[in-house]
Specification:
With 604 residues, the protein is an alpha/beta fold. It contains 16 helices and 29 strands.
């Protein structure tokens, strides 16, 4: 833990313009507590790939600290930098990078990164709500729709089928008009972005095996229902993003059938054909999911061209896309076109204006998500996995080994949570972190209520971290009322609108309060991040912005106190508790003393 030492992060308090353009002069600042003064400070950055040093100078003093600053020109699309500290505490010098202060040499991978490819400004204010289309809500019109032959119809309160019972074909009949009817519920949670799982026709309830990209599934109400939902959401200040699969189609897709039946067709080149298995490359060996071959120029045009699928549905009203298995798209054996595909998709999305592009990415982000491809990601590595490793009950991951997202994560204590979060967050630009989803669970993982052993306090801790750490909190439908489920599929249960007595209303009230505070306190949306302290069962950090600061205490259980010098948090004594208990400020000390699992916030 390096609280009380020199600090920098690429947030507005430390960077004059967090979203610069090429040629801009940017002022970068470091705060230095008077208890550990510096004699000299240099900015080390890469200019055209070469390490270059600029001397920083004291620019502001007061409140027990000194702010040093240096100016640098954005000569390259990415400004990669760290600081060299010299002073009594660091007589031989030390580096300050994204993981803290180090009295040794460090590799460049954890350097700070400021980029010229900014996500939409509205992303900073986002609270995301994920809806699995078949399971959220069912309108009255659903009863009149004929069912396809693959469907195994279910009443809304029927139990989920098992894998052996062909779970993927169980159809509850949720639709888009049903979602529209419950938008006020999303508003009550502070939601600003609705993320829909795929709405294209398919031969399953999850619809990741699309049979067409040209229309909305009639089972969901068709194109008109999507338009009605988008209009109703926009009227409430909620944006809508869709879910697209450039990695594969379904084996029932028109492109695949044409390519299979006509070797001379353009569609033949959309897939990779071979003599093994089913005769073509597929996603993880599932014959129902033939993998797309992005070497095809015609496929590229149909996906990302002016009249391509991605741009056409954005013009129809979508505010962005979540890209399914983005980390696998364009990758097959010796072929790796992932970055080229990501660039083309980014260009297509950017061409339609102020839209958000988020990658599903299960593993280490820094290879693929640098801000110039996807804006951000479903942040499993930088947020979910460290949070789960700290909060989950023993052995829960063994049952939820979906694609190994959660399998075999080493359990950590509070300091371990901080270390893992720092390690992964330091490897990507700050704007990637803030444009990524903070996920406690999704349609691909066990639900958080199951993961923590039906421990409401730990559910609150998880959702509290999601709403207070940098990034966009994502609520998976039903988590706010305590739905459970031990795997992705067993978590995809219908929202029990018909049974409000089964809801955890105390949890629901807390989630609504989280959403309200995120909108009320700018520091939770735009502030930097300083880790204040960590013990086995609790962690504390401060989010700081020009408009104000918020001290956050998150506990998984009652924990030993954390105490810090109030001088290291200028202004904290003038603040107030805005949520929970366990933070007191008196006699120049800040005492953090959680007596139960949950979240406490102190704002000034």
């Amino acid at each position: 833990m390096t609280f009380g030492l020199a600090h920098h992060d690429p947030s507005p308090l430390y960077v004059s313009d967090p979203h610069p353009v090429l040629g801009d002069t940017v002022t970068l600042r470091v705060r230095v507590p008077d208890a550990h003064p510096l004699e000299r400070l240099h900015l080390r950055y890469l200019l055209d790939g070469e390490g270059t040093f600029v001397e920083a100078h004291p620019a502001q003093q007061g409140d027990g600290e000194t702010w040093w600053s240096a100016e640098v020109v954005m000569a390259n699309p990415t400004l990669q930098y760290r600081w060299f500290l010299e002073g009594p505490l660091h007589p031989g010098g030390a580096w300050l990078n994204g993981t803290g202060v180090h009295a040794r040499d460090v590799p460049d991978v954890a350097d700070f990164r400021l980029i010229t490819a900014a996500p939409p400004a509205w992303v900073e204010d986002a609270v995301v709500y994920q809806v699995f289309c078949d399971r959220f809500a069912r309108s009255a019109d659903a009863d009149a729709r004929p069912l396809p032959g693959w469907a195994l119809p279910a009443a809304w309160d029927d139990p989920l089928r098992t894998y052996a019972q062909r779970q993927q074909f169980q159809l509850y009949g949720g639709d888009l008009d049903g979602v529209a009817e419950h938008l006020d519920h999303l508003v009550s949670l502070g939601v600003t972005v609705l993320y829909l799982t795929p709405f294209f026709p398919a031969e399953s309830n999850h619809r990741y095996n699309a049979t067409s990209f040209d229309e909305v599934d009639p089972l969901l109400g068709g194109d008109a229902a999507l338009t009605r939902l988008i209009d109703a959401a926009h009227a409430r200040g909620i944006r809508v993003i869709g879910d697209f699969t450039p990695n594969h189609t379904g084996s029932g897709h028109g492109w695949f059938r044409t390519g299979r039946d006509d070797p001379a067709s353009a569609e033949r080149g959309f897939y990779t054909w071979d003599a093994d298995g089913p005769g073509y490359a597929s996603w993880l060996g599932f014959a129902s999911l033939p993998k797309l071959n992005h070497a095809s120029a015609e496929l590229t045009e149909r996906l990302t061209g002016p009249e391509g699928v991605l741009r056409r549905w954005l013009r129809a009203g979508l505010d962005g896309w979540r890209i399914d298995v983005a980390n696998m798209t364009g990758r097959l054996g010796a072929v790796d076109d992932n970055r080229a595909v990501a660039h083309r998709i980014r260009e297509a999305v950017d061409a339609e204006g102020d839209r958000w592009l988020v990658a599903e990415h299960f593993y280490d982000l820094h290879h693929d998500v640098d801000g110039f491809t996807w804006h951000g990601a479903m942040n499993y590595t930088g947020f979910s996995r460290p949070a789960w490793a700290w909060l989950e009950q023993p052995d829960s991951a063994e049952e939820d080994a979906h694609f190994a997202v959660t399998a075999r994560i080493p359990a950590v204590d509070g300091p371990g949570l901080v270390a893992v979060h720092r390690d992964f967050t330091a490897q990507v630009p700050w704007s990637v972190t803030t444009a990524s989803f903070n996920i406690v669970g999704s349609h691909d993982t066990g639900r958080i209520r199951w993961r923590v052993g039906d421990h409401r306090g730990r559910v609150l801790a998880a959702l509290g971290l999601a709403h207070t750490l940098p990034g966009a909190p994502m609520l998976y439908y039903g988590d706010e009322i305590g739905l459970a489920g031990s795997t992705g599929e067993y978590g995809r249960r219908p929202f029990p609108w018909q049974a409000p007595k089964t809801w955890d209303h105390e949890l629901l009230a807390a989630v609504r309060r989280f959403g309200a505070l995120r909108h009320e306190l700018p520091a939770l949306r735009r502030g930097g991040l300083r880790w204040v302290g960590a013990v086995a069962d609790a962690v504390a950090f401060v989010r700081e912005a020009p408009e104000g600061s918020v001290l956050v205490l998150v506990a998984r259980d009652p924990a030993e106190p954390i105490e810090v010098d109030a001088a290291l948090l200028p202004g904290v004594a003038s603040g107030r508790a805005v949520l929970g208990e366990g933070i007191t400020v008196a006699d120049g000390r800040v005492r953090l003393h959680p007596t139960q699992a949950g979240v406490a916030l102190w704002a000034w």
